[in-house]
Specification:
The complex is a heterotrimer. Chain A is α/β, with parallel strands linked by helices. Chain A is built from 13 helices and 8 strands. Chain B has 2 domains: 94 residues, Elongation Factor Tu (Ef-tu), domain 3 (Beta Barrel); 132 residues, Rossmann fold (3-Layer(aba) Sandwich). The radius of gyration of chain B is 18 Å and the shape is globular. The chains are: A alpha/beta, B alpha/beta, C alpha+beta.
Chain lengths: 338, 280, 336
Amino acid sequence: MTASHEIETRLRETAERLLGEKKVDLFLGHEKASLPLRTTPLFLTVAADAARLAWNPFCSPNLAVYLPRLFRAPADAREAKTAPPRPTVGVVLKGCDARSVVALIQEHQLPRDKLVLVGIACPGMVDARKAERVLGLHEALGAGEDAHGNIRAVVEDGTEVTLRREQVLADVCLECRAPTPSICDIVLGAAVEPREAHVARRQAEELESRPADARWAHFQQMMSKCIRCNACRQACPMCYCKDCLLDQTRPRWVGAGTDFSDVAIYHLARAFHMAGRCTACGACARACPMGLDVRLLVRKLNLEVEDLYGYRPGEAVDATPPLSAFAMDDPQEFLTEP
Amino acid sequence: MARNPYLPYPARLEETIVENDAKDIKTFRLAFDDPAGAAEFQYLPGQFAELSLPGMGEAPFGIASSPTETGRLLFSVKRTGLFTAELHSIEPGARIGVRGPMGKPFPWDRVAGKDLLIIGGGFAFTTLRSAIVYILDPANRSRFGSVLAVYGARTPGELMYRADLAAWQKRDDIGVHLTVDKPDQNWTQHVGVVTAVLETLTPSARNTLAIVCGPPIMIKFTLLTLSKLGFSDDAIILSLEMRMKCGIGKCGRCNIGSKFVCTDGPVFTREELKTLPVEY
Amino acid sequence: MTEKRIPQTDLDRLLARLRQRAAVYAPAEDGTGEVVLAALSGKESVTLEYRNFRLSPKALVLPQNQTLLCFKDGQAEEPRLPEGETILFGVRPCDARALLALDQVFLNGNPHDPYYARLRSGATVITLACARPMSSCFCTSVGGGPGDGTGADVLAVALAEDLLLRAETSKGEALLASLADLLSDATPAAVKEAQEQVRAAEDPMTPVKVDGSAERLRQAYDSPLWEAASRKCLGCGTCSFLCPTCHCFDITDEVRGGAGRRVRTWDCCAYPLFTLHASGHNPRPTPKERWRQRIMHKFRYAVENFDRLFCVGCGRCIRHCPASLDLRTVLKEVGA
């Protein structure tokens, strides 16, 4: 694992070069946020600003979510006449971000030839809320990475608190099986060992081991806290539909309130639309203001797609997503032996 | 205790009149179930109301009748979405809720003694009908000076209130000029956009208030023409449209700058609009 | 009004007494390690060890979804408005001030909102002063403070062992009078300690320049900086939903068989569909216009309409934005 600051330096050089040589019109990365334990997306157009780029354990945001809107086709001929030419966009990608880009390319939302992908194998990113929970009533005023890869936070009374990395990494990172970007033009840093396959199944298996009514109670309890803000959907790179099913009025499939049936349908519908497409980036869970385990259902559905079709989203841009295709020898026991 | 502003007055559809050849604009004549409700619903031309269909929702519509037309409450509705489609399909006798009246009317206190230039385009003529009927009412007519109305539509079949228009054109206390973009073989009146007609008529701006209602593109060019004709910004009165929900300045949806189109508008003078951000 | 005191060990007794006359909401752990403003049933463990709640108390006067009308056989009827009193204990000063902002929208002006009015008038607010603001807090810059009693009926300050209570309104006076047997007078030393605690809490907050923000924002309306500032915005709604002064709502009808209801639900101006017309025209077509609207509403339009900022400096939007957008930074960038 290459040290973060080494990668950061090379990232800045790369972005500066790409912008300076006009190989890209726009470069997407991360920069320091106003609060510690976080970064904020950075949209660079000027080579000299590349020094603002950051690479550290807080680069959680999935930048792929900003890409489709940069390449959105004009709505009609009139708009097409005045629309600016499509930009060439450089973007820094972790393993999960790259999976999102792959999936978006497969679904024709991104033109591969207009992207310059800078891939960094990711050792995992810190979940700011987890870290804050560990700090309890202390508040981190600054945080960084120490030589061992742990997080050193300086709290309000000036003392330093070390948070073990494994204790504060995001849940998705703890089970990440593809930390090395599956698609990129430029590689920075060395490869990173993926987590073992069984870890990703652990949560789903634990839940399935509970009796049905306990599982239902768990689901109901989670749904009771949902405030229907739609943050999970807005943060998801794969939710790019201009007219979301769940917003439609003709017919109105789901109400906007917190009635259990509406909340449940929202999450169930979204989960089914994510099956075989969700790239396990965790942006939904990060965005949820209520801290809900929004990935609960999709995690399971994705495992089912993996088991039935041997497919994990975002790992090979040439692959055909199984739910977009049909082969005569596809497993069908769920039809014949429900 | 004040009436719940979210509770519509119960009313019924009495009559449906198809206004245009395309049959997607209909005028609905409504009657309140409760005469007390009718008595409370005091409005002035320029105001709007939210029509409510339980289960379908609500939408705001300019009131097309004049308060001088006692017992006749009219709304003209163009079929564009879910709610208007439902409205177009109901039969006389069906229940409709009416919430209102809402918004600020045309500035009738300023209009006394002035000459009026009324300019409308397409479907936006609804509240202008209300204004004209109000002005022409014998009880009101002497309060105003001369009245000139210019109304344009794409084709003769798209003009609304054709019976009223014909009747007004026969009167000598109002001038009504109609114009279409594309005439048919029977059309004998103006051809061309509303601004072209204005430039032919060159109405005087002296002691005159202009009231303009129409699609954004028509308003844009009409304002240029009115400027050329010498109308000052506070002599030009516009009615705006915005996506609305509550209609009473609480849901935060229809604001332009610090003004809510539902309570501070929908009627604004050009002078007022110039202080607001161009976000409409 | 004299300051009263009660030992913190008696807090449960105080809350139990309050529960005899009203539904009481107080800070309690929710079982996942988070402190929320929980409806007390008597089994919760109330705690005063928290910074602020994730969800603001606005949910108790302007619920996420609220039935406006009931339909039956095509007729619309008003629902029965909830009766009874609520007591909100442990509301932070910023959130209490926010209620006054909501009052401007829903109570003042014509007409007033009967649904909000019912919940609001039935609520008694006991504010708990802050001893330790967070780095995302900036209440002192927007007219508030960690010990500000504005918007409270009773202001409480937690000292080492005691809780000091001071009535801020006649409603608060009546409440404290009803608890007279549980309370004693606070000593001058305790009062001084409370004042010092509040002052110490004010110190660490980084000031945010908002004086004259309304005028500066008016001039900055067309600044190209809005585009840059808003590019990161996902339109996720987190900021508005957690914000104690955000009040925009949607109204929709829900039908089940022959019955149904008209319901209002929280909405957000950052959502792409918020201002979409039926014709397809959208006055705010990109994140730039929507983000600008959000800032303008809070720091300019509210000032022009109500002479009041619609931001109380609670910092929730800063802390929870998944893109870590910070409106303090944006204010500085477009205003400076």
